[in-house]
Design a protein that fits this description.
This protein is α/β, with parallel strands linked by helices. Helix content is 31%, strand content 25%. The chain has helices at 27-37, 55-62, 75-88, 101-110, 127-141, and strands spanning 45-49, 67-71, 94-97, 115-120, 144-155, 168-175, 178-184. The chain has a 7-stranded mixed β-sheet, with helices on both faces. The mean pLDDT is 95.
């Protein structure tokens, strides 16, 4: 089961949907990601795409993010996200969206919203296509605030830095079978 690694909700065990429809980010990978962005998190607006359990947005909120939007179109995931936000007492800072990611990102962009950190953990089989689409939407709708960062989690064999060509890759890190790639505009 995923848990909150640090911050005001540290140690809280989170729910995950039953079955293999979601693949929560491991604590090791989550710790590495947040270690890399720790100075960016306090006061930030965080967008969690394919949020699953909501754990990445919850981790950001626990560490001082101002707000989080959690996109996932699966009904089971939305139920788990709601329970996890309730359990951590963070629901007033979070906005779950039950929509396909591209439609949700377009809607957020049309409303003029932007984010300091955009994290995306798509189904690994579709990571390339979804990361490319997301990066195009980020650019088209100005979803990344000035100085913001776009982070994509994928299978270690999927080289996202060669697929997302409209942003600058600042680093890629492998953690076992997982690759985390960081982009800026």
């Amino acid at each position: 089961m995923p848990r909150v690694v640090s911050g005001k909700c540290r140690g809280t065990v989170l729910e995950a949907p039953k079955g293999d429809a979601t693949r929560p980010t491991t604590d090791k990978v989550k710790e590495a990601i947040f270690s890399s962005i720790q100075m960016r998190v306090p006061g930030s607006a965080f967008l969690d795409v394919f949020s699953g359990t909501g754990q990445m947005a919850i981790e950001a909120l626990s560490r001082g993010a101002e707000s989080a939007v959690l996109i996932d179109q699966a009904g089971k995931s939305q139920q788990v996200i709601a329970r996890n936000l309730e359990k951590t007492h963070l629901k007033e800072h979070a906005r779950p969206m039950k929509m396909a990611f591209a439609e949700a990102m377009k809607l957020l962009g049309k409303k003029g919203e932007s984010f300091d950190i955009i994290f995306m953990d798509p189904p690994y089989a579709m990571a390339s296509a979804f990361a490319k689409t997301a990066s195009e939407l980020i650019k088209e709708y100005g979803l990344l605030s000035e100085g913001g960062i776009f982070i994509v989690e994928s299978d270690a064999d999927t080289e996202i830095s060669t697929i997302v060509t409209n942003m600058t890759c600042i680093k890629s890190c492998k953690y076992g079978s997982t690759l985390v790639t960081f982009f800026v505009e």
